[in-house]
Model the fold of this input.
Amino acid sequence: MTGITASGRIGIAAAMLLTAGLMAGCSSDGKGAPVWTAEPGTTPATGAASGSASPTASASAGASATAGATAAAWKVFTDPAKTVSFELPQDWIAQSVEPDKGTLPGAVKIEVKDADGTYLATLQTGLPEAAAATCAGTARKSYVVVSSVPVELPHSGGQGTIDPHVVFRVIQGYRYFGSYGITNLVGGADSKACQLQNVVQGLAGKGNYSFSDVRSLKAFAPDEKVAPAKVFDTLDQAASYVNEGSEFANVQRMLMSLKIKN
Done:
């Protein structure tokens, strides 16, 4: 893809989206124009606060994958049981909250907000198995992967899975709806899906886990609340959010730094 500008690649990707072109498995370095979701068998692209958060001067293992401007100072959050940890900007807030009903014993749920208290993401472990979203063929919506970076995390494989990736994906409805998270679940065949799940299929007996703004992204109806998912008028806007803004650069580094005790 060398020699083509970012806006040019976006235009190409948009045209391919509208014609439902099949390019599953196209790679990405985690920044740039939308690329297509990998299918199985392919190699995708590249209350009160609790827990502890300590400053760190070292960069996370995934920091090199983020080309945007990130915060100057970072800290590490670890839950009280030391089952999970991740880095976040020094002035962001990580808060342990009550896990959802139906999660496994020992599950944790942590909400992350920025310095102004604006919600950014939730980490939740011990999630039960979730059936793949189904809908009529005519209700399936086209989607693209704007950013996809592999990350080493515990997971189980099987049909419909890939290795875990930190992704930013956009699904097309009356506007373009975007979401970031970690997943090892394939979005859908022929680049269309009912919903895109930001969930990793965990190891046997450990449950699934999610670290994302929304656990499942869909094409929202005009009368539905979209937030905390993102909404864009064009794919160019989605690419600009990934490539140019500091929010996604910081979020991507945070997601890439996640550690889960086996």
The longest strand covers residues 161-172. The two ends are 38 Å apart (CA to CA). Residues 1-29, 31-50, 55-67 have pLDDT under 50 and may be disordered. The helical segments are 6-18, 235-244, 246-256.
